[in-house]
Amino acid sequence: PQKLKFYNTRTPYTDWFYLTGTKVEQLFKMVFSYNVKKNWNLTANFNRTRSIGFYARETTNDNNVALSTNYRTTNNRYCLLGSLIYNGAKNMENGGLVNDSSNSVDKQTIAVNLNDAQRSIINRSIYLKQYLNFGRTKNDSIKDKQITPTSSLALETFVEDNYLKYQDNNPLGGYYS
Length: 177
Prior knowledge:
By secondary structure, the chain is an all-beta fold. It contains no helices and 7 strands.
């Protein structure tokens, strides 16, 4: 949540990025932000990285989804930042090359130490940060009374859940001691 950007847009904002590589690598990023009301914003972020890798069993599939919101009262007395984040990664594990001096042109055909292992990682989090601003009240001819913050009281809440699963369907293959 520390890397999330919180937006305040006048019109809907969209940013798309797609990259593909020679070895079936794919990188996709998307941000969509929209102000539901003048003082309330919703944003969705999606990132995906996928690659089969250079050697056998190097396939990776990483996904990140983040939904965030920010709200502030019209007088700027109270502000709220919040997010829901999901990170998931599924990676094949190959344990390295059996013989790193192979002369094979196709790196996918070089023998690897693990032929049936994979790792899954899941991370989920909820983040809330609330501000109560104190300061001078300023009259604005266009807006109601606005608070110019000179100090604030903040409450930050963060809950996180992590999951790691390593699985090898052939644990007696001689790789592990």
